[in-house]
Design brief:
The structure is a single chain. With 192 residues, the protein is an all-alpha fold. Helices cover 79% and strands 2% of the residues. The protein has one domain. It is globular and about 50 Å long. 41% of the residues are buried.
Length: 192
C-alpha cells in the first residue's frame, strides 16, 4: 500500500466525519482526498471510479459554495428530504447512468469490473449531489455504495480501501442518524 493510498484514506475518513457533523470543512478535505484516490484507482484500472473522482472535485466545489451560501443566510446547514417524485427521478437517473457507463466501460475499455464499478459510480454521483443539496437520502445512497465498494476493492487487492469503505459504512450510518436527529423539527420535503 502506497503512501498516497494511506493519505487518501485518512483524508477520506476525515471528510465523512465532517460531513456527518454538517461541517463545511468536509469539502476542501474531500477535494484533496478524491484527487489522491483518483490516482490510485486509475492505476488499478477502475476507470469508472477514476472518472468519478474527477466528478467529485467539481461536486465538492459545488457543495462547498452551496453550503457556504446557506450557512451565511441561515447560520446553519439545514436538512431536507426529497418528495416521492424526486426519489423516482433520482432512481431513474442512477439506473440510467449505471447502464450507460457499465456498457461503455465493458465495450470500450479493459476495465476490471465494469458493471459493479459503474453502478457504484452512478450511485456515488447521485449521493454527492444530494449531499451538496443537503438531502437526507444522500446517506442511504452512501450506505449502498459502501456495501458494494468493499467487495470491489477486495477483489482488486486494494485492502486499505476495502477497510476504508467498511469504515465509511459505519460513518454513513452515523451520518444518517446524525442528520435525522438534527432535522427533527426542520424537515422539509422538497422536489428535486
Amino acid at each position: 500500500m502506497s503512501p498516497v493510498e494511506w493519505i487518501a484514506t485518512a483524508l477520506g475518513i476525515a471528510c465523512v466525519l465532517l460531513a456527518a457533523r454538517r461541517s463545511i470543512w468536509t469539502f476542501p478535505v474531500a477535494i484533496v482526498s478524491v484527487i489522491l484516490l483518483g490516482v490510485v484507482v486509475f492505476e488499478a484500472r477502475l476507470y469508472s471510479d477514476a472518472l468519478l473522482q474527477l466528478f467529485f472535485v467539481a461536486a465538492n466545489l459545488y457543495g462547498w459554495l452551496t453550503w457556504r451560501r446557506t450557512q451565511a443566510r441561515t447560520g446553519d446547514v439545514p436538512v431536507g428530504m426529497l418528495d416521492a417524485a424526486g426519489r423516482t427521478r433520482w432512481s431513474v437517473a442512477i439506473l440510467s447512468g449505471w447502464l450507460v457507463c457499465g456498457a461503455a466501460m465493458h465495450r470500450w475499455t479493459d476495465a476490471a469490473l465494469p458493471w459493479l464499478d459503474a453502478g457504484i459510480a452512478a450511485a456515488s454521483i447521485a449521493a454527492q449531489l444530494l449531499m451538496a443539496q443537503r438531502r437526507l437520502e444522500n446517506w442511504w445512497l452512501w450506505v449502498a455504495v459502501d456495501l458494494a465498494s468493499v467487495p470491489l476493492y477486495l477483489a482488486k487487492g486494494l485492502y486499505l480501501f476495502a477497510g476504508l469503505y467498511a469504515v465509511y459504512l459505519g460513518l454513513a450510518l452515523w451520518g444518517l442518524a446524525s442528520w435525522s436527529r438534527s432535522a427533527r423539527g426542520e424537515w422539509r420535503v422538497v422536489a428535486a
